[in-house]
UniProtKB/TrEMBL annotation:
Database matches in PANTHER family: FI04487P (PTHR43807:SF20)
Pfam families the record matches: Aminotran_1_2
Keywords, alphabetical: Aminotransferase, Pyridoxal phosphate, Transferase
Keyword Transferase tagged: yes
Protein name from the UniProt record: Aminotransferase class I and II
Length: 406
């Protein structure tokens, strides 16, 4: 175990105490289990189909033409920065200056790390929605901050998933979590792993709180294009008083199905973006040269691309949701992202960790216990996450295996 390894001649652990609790991720453990058991891996969120051919070709062209093979400019290549601002304008009516209000990062992961390292002083509190994407906790820890989780809780309602049972934000809990030490709110919508998309009312309340308490907001909106049914993605930066205090994070990996390219970005005021750039320049300095040109083209694809992408994922969501329901899981409605959260209690189970560790042998399928995304592990214990960004036939086979196993 990485976290407990120590130098040969001292009792001191190799891994520093800020990171000690983050030894090995569940994804590594579960993916290894998937390989060993020949299971279908619905654990990690990456598509099994690459993004648009023309965008892959755009990357090849950039490589061949020698665009981006050497260090690109620190803030990102101008073509991509302009494409990002044009996208924010076209989709949401938000105006950003491509020269001072955009920074290209090594995926959203680096954007999160650089933002937190830039904005936090040791001891600062970060209020984040729990369950949270696993890098949040680690990055808050690396920055010396303290995380203050606000737990999203399942709404009451019919248990058939179709009727819209979802995880919701308790606004009183959110308000109570803010103290004089709170530096920023770390928000994620559409939300991984619950599939919740924060509503206009929830976002309005978050914005009002941020303004009232004069807080910075970092909002991870990497699944902005994956919203279904009547859900709508509303960027937090568009709410009154938010533009000047909000850093918005996006990612090409999720929207264009090229997760390995690691092209992400932040948008915000010149002051905020320049702070993030100060941290980023000592993490990677620059990244993904040729891919930046390709993503610039991707962001300029017509609306038909984004519509078709969403429609394809919607079919996949419905195939997996039906299969899981059929196998006996309680299925929460995924309004956004490519994850489905389930409740395993109808199967007579209550410990998601034990369930997921046994599932590959039992059913030949890998899933992730939501408890890993919680500080209050007990609150997440009965929930298990499945990714549906896989081919329909793969999802159908997984559904068949699960049905046969229970
Ligand atoms: C909520 C959320 N934020 C950020 C990321 C990381 O994005 P990227 O691959 O662009 O680093 C992910 C990836 O799963 C995610 O789910």
């Amino acid at each position: 175990m990485t976290s407990t390894a120590s130098a040969p001649d001292s009792g001191r652990p190799l891994l520093n105490r800020r990171l000690a609790e983050f030894g090995t991720t569940i994804f590594a453990e579960m993916s290894a289990l998937a390989v060993r058991t020949g299971s279908i891996n619905l654990g990690q969120g990456f598509p099994d189909t690459d993004g648009p051919e023309e965008i892959r070709e755009a990357a090849v062209r950039a490589l061949r033409d020698g665009r981006g093979n050497q260090y690109p400019p620190g803030p990102g290549v101008p073509e991509l920065r302009t494409a990002i601002t044009a996208h924010q304008q076209r989709r949401y009516g938000l105006s950003y200056d491509p020269d001072t209000e955009v920074l290209v990062t090594a995926g959203a992961t680096e954007a999160i790390a650089a933002a937190l390292l830039a904005l936090l002083e040791p001891g600062d509190e970060v209020v984040a929605l729990e369950p949270y994407y696993d890098s949040y906790a680690a990055c808050i820890a690396m920055a010396g901050g303290t995380r203050v989780p606000v737990t999203l809780r399942p709404s009451e309602g019919p248990r058939d998933g179709v009727a819209g049972r979802r995880f919701r934000l308790d606004l009183d809990e959110l308000r109570a979590a803010v103290t004089d030490r709170t530096r920023l709110l770390l928000i994620n919508t559409p939300h991984n792993p619950t599939g919740t998309v924060l509503t206009r009312a929830e976002l309005t309340a978050i914005a009002e709180l941020a303004v009232e308490r004069d807080l910075l907001v970092v909002t991870d909106e990497v699944y902005e294009h994956l919203v279904f049914d009547d859900a709508e993605h509303l960027p937090l930066a568009g709410f009154p008083g938010m533009r000047e205090r909000t850093l918005t994070i996006g990612s090409a990996g999720k929207t264009f199905s090229f997760t390995g390219w690691k092209v992400g970005w932040v948008t915000g005021t010149p002051g905020l973006v320049s702070a993030v750039r100060s941290a980023k320049q000592f993490l990677t300095y620059v990244n993904s040269g040729p891919f930046q040109y390709a993503v610039a083209e991707a962001l300029s694809l017509p609306d038909s691309y984004f519509d078709a992408f969403r429609a394809d994922m919607l079919v996949k969501r419905d195939v997996l949701a039906a299969g899981l329901r059929d196998a006996g899981f309680d299925v929460f409605t995924t309004a956004g992202t490519y994850f489905i959260t389930t409740d395993i209690r109808p199967l007579g189970e209550s410990d998601g960790f034990a369930f997921c560790r046994a599932l590959p042998e039992r059913a030949g399928v890998v899933a992730i216990p939501n408890a890993v995304f919680y500080d209050h592990r007990e609150a997440g214990a009965p929930f298990v996450r499945f990714a549906f960004c896989k081919k329909v036939e793969v999802l159908e086979e997984a559904a068949k295996r699960l049905k046969g196993a229970f």
